[in-house]
Design a protein that fits this description.
The structure holds two protein chains of two kinds.
Chain A lengths: L3 E4 L2 E5 L4 E7 L4 E9 L6 E7 L4 E4 L2 E6 L4 E6 L8 E9 L5 E3 L3 E6 L1
Chain B lengths: L4 E3 L2 E4 L5 E6 L6 E7 L6 E7 L2 E5 L6 E5 L5 E5 L8 E8 L9 E2 L3 E5 L1
Parallel strand pairs in B: 2-11
Antiparallel strand pairs in B: 1-3, 3-8, 4-5, 4-9, 5-6, 7-8, 9-10, 9-11
Classes of the chains: A mainly beta, B mainly beta.
């Protein structure tokens, strides 16, 4: 069945450094890849997304890259700040459906 | 513009009981999806509702059922609760138009089955 693997499960960085989270998906029919940030006690919040016809997308300090051949996509956060500390989830949506398959999450800690 | 609201925020039920969770979708959104998030895991798709009909279902047994109302709000019903049903239940609304995929999630209902 469809599967999304996410690494690492935890990541600690110093404030101002960059953070990279990687995901691999199994279903080559996937065509949409969102990233969500979940803070304690809250629902996931969309922070950036990318479609399968695009290789890279950037929004201020956040960027996402997609390698369709390798079925990899990654989240890059530059100049990290303490408020970036949260759990981040990647997801993949299969073409023709509205179902998202989520990764298992990465707990990011930004140390001041 | 209001976001997605879910009620209740927390709930404790006994094994074997039934529970109903509620969701009001974001203004302008016509599709509601429900996800189960176990502790330390990513959300798992339960099902989606569009035009008051179930439109896609994940690997959940029939005791998980739902409804969508004409105002696009939705309910998730779980019968014969089991201990493993303890989780955060998330509702997400979206607009079902070509090229638009983004979900807006609510803050969830934390269900504990004892």
């Amino acid at each position: 069945g469809e599967n999304v693997e996410q690494h690492p499960s935890t990541l600690s960085v110093q404030e101002g450094d960059s953070a990279v989270i990687k995901c691999t998906y199994s279903d080559s029919a996937s065509n949409y890849f969102p990233w969500y940030k979940q803070e304690l006690g809250k629902g996931p919040q969309l922070i950036i997304d990318i479609r399968s016809n695009v290789g890279e997308k950037k929004d201020q300090r956040i960027a996402v890259t997609l390698n369709k051949t390798a079925k990899h996509f990654s989240l890059h956060i530059t100049e990290t700040q303490p408020e970036d500390s949260a759990v981040y989830f990647c997801a993949a949506k299969q073409s023709g459906t509205y179902k998202y398959i989520f990764g298992t999450g990465t707990r990011l800690k930004v140390l001041a | 513009e209001t976001g997605v609201t879910q009620s209740p925020t927390h709930l404790i039920k006994t094994r074997g009981q039934q529970v109903t969770l509620r969701c009001s979708s974001q203004s302008g959104h016509n599709t509601v999806s429900w996800y189960q998030q176990a502790l330390g895991q990513g959300p798992q798709f339960i099902f989606q509702y569009y035009r008051e009909e179930e439109n896609g279902r994940g690997n959940f047994p029939p005791r998980f059922s739902g409804l969508q109302f004409p105002n696009y709000s939705s309910e998730l019903n779980v019968n014969a609760l089991e201990l493993d049903d303890s989780a955060l239940y998330l509702c997400a609304s979206s607009i079902r138009t070509g090229g638009s995929y983004g979900y807006t999630f609510g803050s969830g209902t934390r269900l504990t089955v004892v």
